[in-house]
Amino acid sequence: MMPTPHHDHVLRLDCIVCGKEYDPAEVDYTCSDHGAVGTLDVVYDYELAASRMLAESRRFSMWRYLPLLPVARDADLPRLRVGWTQLVRADRLAADLGVEQLWIKDEGRQPTGSLKDRASALAVVKARERGAEVVTTASTGNAAAALAGICADMGQRCVIFVPASAPEAKVAQLLAYGAEVRLVDGSYDQAFDLCTAVAAEEGWYDRSTGVNPYMTEGKKTVLLEVIDQLGRQAPDVVVTSVGDGCIIGSLHKAIRDLLALDHIDRAPRLIGVQAEGSSYLVQAWERGEDVLTKPPAPADTVADSISAGLPRDRIKAMAAVRETGGAFLAVSDDDILAAIPELAAATGIFAEPAAAAGYAGLKAAAARGLVEPADRVVLLSTGSGLKDVPAAMRAVAVAGREPQRVSPRN
């Protein structure tokens, strides 16, 4: 690969385990002393970034925040519009939950239908900077689709490692975009490890969560947008579903950016929601376990996008909740499926199981007093229900919603 171009607004990369500092040109992914767990954090010159924000404010996409992203000002950006998705005010659900205000960020409106487009767009730009011939990732579907779609837009070859159990619609999306798909006869964690190994052997650019330090930076733009859309008024609580932990970690990074820029005066509490069948971080949170050493846990849930036996961004995820006074909690697959038609009927937002898990978790949080009546709440709906139609059909069947068969009129 070519060396990373120098970006004057990026000061360095810091290991989140030991604090070791790196110049971006000297490291591709993780800390040399800590391997896979040595995730790196991008450190910016906030004074310089602030001086450039106004010039980008006419963009209505994730690139509005270019001064807070680790790419050059003249970078070759995707043509597809990624970001600036709708923030929907959900007054009926707010009343049902007993909170002052509820806003839902609908990431199902992204080009490939999920929040993962943000990270993949940044990954492809970084890969192009480095002259990579191939970009690769391991994914249960959404990150893969996002990468395939952005690569199709930019004429970039990509190879995707996906568990063979991934929903058919997600695999079809990859193939339609022209991605080279490797179906792995194993779990997501096994697909992840295989992707990492092959990327290292072949010299491919690895977009995988927890390995690539820049995925947090792409995903954080979702909360940067929310704050702008709310008139730079921070909500009290932000709720998201959690699998590998990158999204909730990215929300924390956005909060740190916004505080450094004086765009908000306080940090929202971050609440992470996992499925009961894939609840590594919930277990660690409730038991006070060290996620640096905690071994993998079983993962089996209808919400495939958040199924992870060993969350790869677990250190950032745990810090996000602890440092904002938030919480992790788990919800059942039955509650996740029930949330799909409930959310859709009340807001018009059709969520896949992983996205609906966030709403199921918000209901549980409200019932447990983790969300208070005076709170202004933002819920991330991370992906479209069209990603997993069989799960949606199960959900509406359980809810007793069936079409009526009628005869035509002659």
- Quaternary structure classification: single chain
Radius of gyration, rounded?
A: 20 Å
Structural class: alpha/beta
Q: In one word, what is the shape? A: globular
Any overview of this molecule?
With 410 residues, the chain is of the alpha/beta class. It is built from 14 helices and 13 strands. The chain has helices at 46-56, 91-97, 116-129, 142-154, 168-176, 188-202, 215-219, 221-229, 246-260, 280-287, 314-324, 333-347, 353-367, 389-398; strands spanning 10-15, 21-22, 40-44, 87-89, 101-106, 134-138, 157-163, 180-184, 205-206, 237-241, 269-275, 327-331, 376-381. A six-stranded mixed β-sheet has the order 4-5-13-10-11-12, with helices on both faces. β1 and β2 (21-22) form a beta hairpin. α3 packs across α4 (142-154), α4 runs parallel beside α5 (168-176) and α8 (221-229) crosses α9 (246-260). The longest helix has 15 residues, at 188-202. The radius of gyration is 20 Å and the shape is globular.
